[in-house]
């Protein structure tokens, strides 16, 4: 090749590499969801008198990695196997920040642990007390009257001087309130009770209905017959609930893994139902890369998981009893 064209090719290649390098570090307007390897649950669950297993068999949970996509990843999503791009307004709706989304995700994880402990202990015949305890804030809408006053994790226990045990109680108290009025709330924040005054506004659905701008769920007080602790660190979301419940039964009851590497995902309810979760393509790849023997997924996610299984056994379950049966008879 003549020297001048060769030099031109070298210059163009260098320019392309430099451009790619710049695009790699410039954030885009999308987020990227990537696979993460499954991890054993045993080190995360502490039960009095338990013995740790040193082998690689056991129950595993699997999560996904979520971060802001670079411009290069936005333009060339095929750079990563199993990558999914999500517009920022979809992942963080209505102006919710990354920090707020993260706080809500950790809040979901905390409750999923309590629910998993409850389901597992009840399966083993242990008595667990679960009592209504108020309306817990799970999201504060940016720019709403509650923004800066109420926090994710606050539990409303009284509104306008009336006790609140459930979200239905809170709705009944708020029904006669006119938009623009100020309401007095008592919330449990950690170990303290705090009295707050919060403004209201009308909803888009009904101009006569007053809201403070939060999403709430029923809060419960749990009383366990033994001290079970789960430390998931910085992992958020509710999808590890099934894996936690299986691990507790495995430690206190029968051996569930049978020498296998069992990966499980699914949100579990107090009734033992296993609900669909997100990130199934990435979680299936993560289970595959961990060389799992079997991957338990919610019924609603099974078809999608099988598209990425590549030989990994996918077991669909709709409730906790089905999960236990599948492992006992597999």
Any key phrases for this structure?
five-stranded mixed beta sheet, Pdz3 Domain, six-stranded antiparallel beta sheet, 32% helix, globular, alpha+beta, 9 helices
Summarize the structure.
The protein has 9 helices and 20 strands. The chain has helices at residues 3-25, 71-75, 88-91, 98-123, 167-174, 241-252, 280-289, 302-307, 320-329; strands spanning 27-35, 39-40, 45-46, 58-61, 64-70, 84-87, 129-140, 155-159, 162-163, 182-189, 192-199, 201-202, 210-211, 214-223, 229-230, 261-264, 267-268, 274-275, 294-298, 313-317.
Oligomeric organization of the protein chains? single chain
Mean pLDDT reading: 86
Which shape, going by the Cα principal axes? globular
What fraction strand? 25-35%
What is the distance, rounded to the nearest whole angstrom, between the alpha carbons of the first and last residues? 64 Å
Computed CA radius of gyration, to the nearest angstrom? 24 Å
The CATH topology annotation of the largest domain reads as: Ribosomal Protein S5, domain 2
Low-confidence stretches: none
Task: Please give the count of helices.
Answer: 9
- Give the total of beta strands: 20
Approximately how much helix is present in the residues?
Answer: 25-40%
Largest sheet: 6 strands, antiparallel
Number of domains: 2
CATH class of the largest domain: Alpha Beta
The CATH architecture of the largest domain is: 2-Layer Sandwich
- Order of SSEs: HEEEEEHEHHEEEHEEEEEEHEEEHEHEH
Structural class: alpha+beta
């Amino acid at each position: 090749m003549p020297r001048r064209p060769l030099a031109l090719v070298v210059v163009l290649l260098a320019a392309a590499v430099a451009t790619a390098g710049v695009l790699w570090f410039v954030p885009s307007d999308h987020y990227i969801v990537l696979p993460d390897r499954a991890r054993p649950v045993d080190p995360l669950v502490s039960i009095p008198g338990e013995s740790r297993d040193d082998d690689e068999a056991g129950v595993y949970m699997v999560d996904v990695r979520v971060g802001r996509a670079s411009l290069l990843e936005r333009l060339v999503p095929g750079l990563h196997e199993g990558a999914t791009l999500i517009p920022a307004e979809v992942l963080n709706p209505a102006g919710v920040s990354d920090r707020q989304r993260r706080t809500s995700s950790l809040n979901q994880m905390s409750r999923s642990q309590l629910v998993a402990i409850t389901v597992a202990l009840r399966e083993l015949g242990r008595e667990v007390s679960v009592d209504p305890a108020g309306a817990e804030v799970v999201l504060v809408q940016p720019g709403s009257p509650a923004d800066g006053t109420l926090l994710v994790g606050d539990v409303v226990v009284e509104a306008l001087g009336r006790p609140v045990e459930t979200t239905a109680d809170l709705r009944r108290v708020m029904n006669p309130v006119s938009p623009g009025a100020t309401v007095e709330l008592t919330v449990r924040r950690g170990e303290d009770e705090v009295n707050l005054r919060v403004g209201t506004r009308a909803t888009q659905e009904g101009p006569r209905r007053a809201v403070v701008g939060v999403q709430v769920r029923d809060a419960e007080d749990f009383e366990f017959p033994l001290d079970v602790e789960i430390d998931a660190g910085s992992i958020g979301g509710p999808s590890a609930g099934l894996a936690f419940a299986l691990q507790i039964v495995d430690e206190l009851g029968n051996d569930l893994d049978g020498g296998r590497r069992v990966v499980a995902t699914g949100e579990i309810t107090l009734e033992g139902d296993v609900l669909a979760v997100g990130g199934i393509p990435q979680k299936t790849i993560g289970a595959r890369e961990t060389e799992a023997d079997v991957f338990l997924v919610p019924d609603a996610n099974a078809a999608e998981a099988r598209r990425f299984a590549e030989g990994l056994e996918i077991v669909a379950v709709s409730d906790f009893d089905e999960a236990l049966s599948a492992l006992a008879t597999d």
